[in-house]
């Protein structure tokens, strides 16, 4: 991670942010055009032109399914998952499971709530370098601190 971070340009993530914003704008415009073309339906009868949905979609939002799938696929086999596996093998697996879940929830929550602001203030390069330093710190602590030692 340190090597990747040091090789990155300072504005590496800015291009991706701009791509996502352009794609969202395009989808919003497409949605508005579709809405205008289909019309509001018959106001007097209260009917509208809708696509029939399956019953399970009433309980599960499509954005929920998309976010779940995206997060699962993005996290599968990455450094944080591998590090969690090593930590769980070395320490209490229940504590690692709870700590990993809470940590991921906090990180994802921070990304959802302040993602745009953070992306404009902190570069991907900085986050990658900090992540590399944290991984090295945990590696050294695993080398020199016994799992049985109590602080």
TrEMBL record:
A Pfam family for this UniProt protein? GDT1
Report the membrane topology from the UniProt record. Multi-pass membrane protein
Protein localization: Membrane
Q: Per the record, GO CC terms?
A: membrane
Annotated region (Disordered), positions in chain:
1-20
What Gene Ontology molecular function terms does this protein carry? metal ion transmembrane transporter activity
Q: Where the protein is mainly located, per its record?
A: membrane
Where does the source fall among the domains of life? Eukaryota
Q: Which residues cross the membrane?
A: 56-74, 94-114, 126-145
Q: Which UniProt keywords apply?
A: Membrane, Transmembrane, Transmembrane helix
Q: Enumerate composition-biased segments (Basic and acidic residues).
A: 1-10
> Which family is annotated?
Belongs to the GDT1 family.
Its recorded name reads GDT1 family protein
